[in-house]
Amino acid sequence: MKISDRKEGDITFVSLAGRFDIATMDPVRDWFNEAIPAGKVNLVVNLSEVTFVDSAALAVLVQAMKRSREMGGDVRLCCLRQPVRMIFELTRLDKAFEILTTEKDAFN
Amino acid sequence: MSQVLANLLTTQKKQLNAIAETWLDLGAAAFTVWAGGALLARWSSRATFVGNPILAPIYLAGELLGELRVFGAGLDHMQRRLETDALLISHMAHLERDLEGMTSRLIDTQDQLLALYDLTRATRNYLDIMDLLEQLAKSAVRLVKTKGAFVMLDTPEKTPWTAHFPNPILPESDLRLYLQQLQATPGEEALYWDKVLNNVGQHSSLLMIPIEVRGSVIAALGLLDKTKGQFTSPDRKLALAIAEHAGAQIENVLLFQANLEQTRLETEMDLAQRVQLQLLPQYPPGVEGIQLWAGSQPASRVGGDFYDFIVKSNQPLTFTVGDISGKGMPAALLMAMTRTVLRTQMNTSPVPTPEILMRRSNEDLYDDFTEVSMFATVFIGQYTPHTRQLTYANAGHSPVIYCPAGQTAQLLEADGAPIGILPTSLSLDQKMSFRPDDVMVIATDGLNEARNSRDEMFGYDRLMRLIESVAHKPANDIAKALYDAVDKFSNGTMQDDDQTMIVMKGMP
């Protein structure tokens, strides 16, 4: 699981790459656990390079979303591939997360 | 130094007797040995000191030990011979001193070997890291005769341990710095500071020896201030021997701890599995108009799948299938909690439709799930036999596959997010007729996400096509066909999620 991030204005863009599941999620969770308390609460998670998410990985995103909302921010997702989008739709997590088509949408 | 000569008179008595008797045979009146102006020995005991003696000094390593004096008339020409004898005695004193040194070193080595043997025996039975480190520090103080010692261990996985004896002598942060210095200079035998420690008070020297565990320096033995003098080369050697022994012991204990942790995890897994299995009903209830089959195949790492049937008189049959995100004991406990909340709501709600059960359960569980960063996908169904009506609410649960008699299978998608995600559940009651030969499979993602050796997933499509092909069979045959197909597909590849399902089939 590769994680890279950059900041534009008050939005932090995080890009993940690879399979995102119980076996690979720890670094992502650690990243959120460090970033959110440090004030990076407006997050856009780019999943364009993520091929699969399981429920444990979804739980990591949900936790980040809840924590950032508590601090007045949000975790938004963007650029989901079809299989990943399907998982969000089937679990109806698309109702819990704001899902963007492109990173640019984050500024609208 | 006079003691050296006195000792020699005892230890080399025979040789000195021989020298003295030669002189007496040569006509001397007396042969004497003196040290610091005092008479140490004379031959013979009745000898009288007459005339002017001839003298010869005895030196050892440039220092005057004493002298030989031979009395008697007409010996002047034998001065040279006496000097040779004095030289011989010097040589004997020299040998004697070397021998003493060697003996004392041998005794020391012997002591140290015994001490190390003691140390091995004393530490062999420790299974707790801290106990072991304390014993090592204590033994090091005793063996190397220092004022204090500490052993610190810094494994990547855990916070560092430090054991001091008798008292903490330096701040932990300093000790860690020293350990880092040792780690930064691999192969270095030791770090030694002499009078660099003035800033920490009365201490004058610190000897730090690296301790290797499994090939890397993750621990160190620190010795502070020799009781007398400075650390010597033998001290270093002894400290190295202790460090080597310490490394082996630490490795043993770490291995033991890892095994213990493994056993603990296995016990937890076993418990979690039992919690899970005991809460799942063994047999589905008999209900008019439908056939039911329910079961779960637990994974190697216990997941949080569950299913349940709630039968109450004058109420439709309620059944639930759920999947807690996460694994192990936390998932098993939340699964038990979710099941209990659903049952309680069923018993206490005035009109317990699936939508109301879902909303109330979400309200009950939201804070707890948020606390532990987990959630649960839940399907709640209710079937009323006399109307053949099926009402369900689906909070993020998938797959739910409905195959109407003779038609293609379809995925019934959820309308609300899983329990524990949002403060309010958005799942609404969905109503449908469930007629003879209709089939509904409510499974968990362990089935469609089962993988084969090429890392491909079984997927929804295979699942739906398969259900269509076996829909004409009884419920338990449908379940068996699904499990068999998934097993055949994964072909022994380890699955890390439970595979759970309820199969419902409409009967004439």
Describe this structure in words.
The complex is a heterodimer of chains A (108) and B (508). Helices cover 32% and strands 33% of the residues of chain A. Chain A is globular and about 30 Å long. Chain A has a 5-stranded mixed sheet. Chain A contains 3 helices and 5 strands. By secondary structure, chain A is an alpha/beta fold. With 508 residues, chain B is of the alpha+beta class. Chain B is 42% helix and 25% strand. Chain B has helices spanning 2-11, 13-25, 79-123, 129-144, 172-184, 233-279, 328-348, 354-371, 445-448, 459-470, 475-490; strands spanning 30-35, 38-43, 54-60, 63-71, 146-153, 161-165, 191-194, 205-213, 216-226, 290-297, 304-310, 317-324, 376-384, 389-395, 400-403, 410-411, 430-433, 439-443, 499-506. In chain B, strands 6-5-9-8-7 form a 5-stranded antiparallel sheet, sandwiched between helices. In chain B, a hairpin with a 6-residue loop joins strand 11 (304-310) and strand 12. In chain B, helix 6 packs parallel to helix 7 and helix 10 runs antiparallel to helix 11. The longest helix of chain B has 47 residues, at 233-279. The radius of gyration of chain B is 45 Å and the shape is rod-shaped. Chain B starts with a helix and ends with a strand. The model of chain B has no long low-confidence stretch (mean pLDDT 86). Classes of the chains: A alpha/beta (108), B alpha+beta (508).
Structural class designation of chain B: alpha+beta
Distance from N terminus to C terminus of chain A (CA atoms, Å) equals: 29 Å
Secondary structure tally, helices of chain A: 3
For the largest interface in this structure, which chains are involved and how many residues does each contribute? A-B, 17 and 29 residues
User: What's the total number of strands of chain B?
Assistant: 19
- Strand residue percentage of chain A: 25-35%
- Report the C-alpha radius of gyration of chain B, rounded: 45 Å
What is the general shape of chain B?
A: rod-shaped
Weakly predicted, low-confidence segments of chain B: none
**Major pleated sheet of chain B:** 5 strands, antiparallel
- Quaternary state, please? heterodimer
The strand line-up of the biggest sheet of chain A is 1-2-3-4-5
> SSE order of chain B, as H and E?
HHEEEEHHEEHEEEHEEEHHEEEEEEHHHE
Order of helices and strands of chain A: EEHEHEHE
Count the DSSP helices of chain B.
11
Shape of chain A: globular
Instruction: For the largest sheet of chain B, list the strands in their spatial order.
Output: 6-5-9-8-7
Q: How would a textbook summarize the main sheet of chain A?
A: 5 strands, mixed
Q: Residue-averaged pLDDT of chain A, rounded?
A: 92
Measured by DSSP, the beta-strand proportion of chain B falls in 25-35%
